[in-house]
Amino acid sequence: MSAHEDDHASTAPFVAAFLALILFGLAVRYWVWVAAGAGVLVLGAVLLWLAFYAARRVDKRHEARAAFVARADQQHAWVLAGDDRGIYGDYRPEVYPSGSG
Questions:
Q1: Alpha-carbon dihedral of residues 58, 67, 95, 83, nearest 10 degrees?
Q2: 54-90 residue pLDDT tens
């Protein structure tokens, strides 16, 4: 390393500290704008989370509806085939109703 490169290496921490001090000063001076910007970021994050949450709920409703439709189609096929499961499903009565009342 040359003497010139050593000079830059030794001043780098001071430059970084000076820039940090300037940024801190700007944040203190314009704290209202910093707070407003932070509020906008938080609001955007909450709205993004809410959008993803709503999308997940819609997906779950579509899945539940698809399962319901598949079950109804299966029971309809059983009715057409003359199977009692199409009428009673998984919960058949213990005593089947007779045709005479």
A1: 150
A2: 999 999 999 999 999 999 999 999 999 988 888 887 7
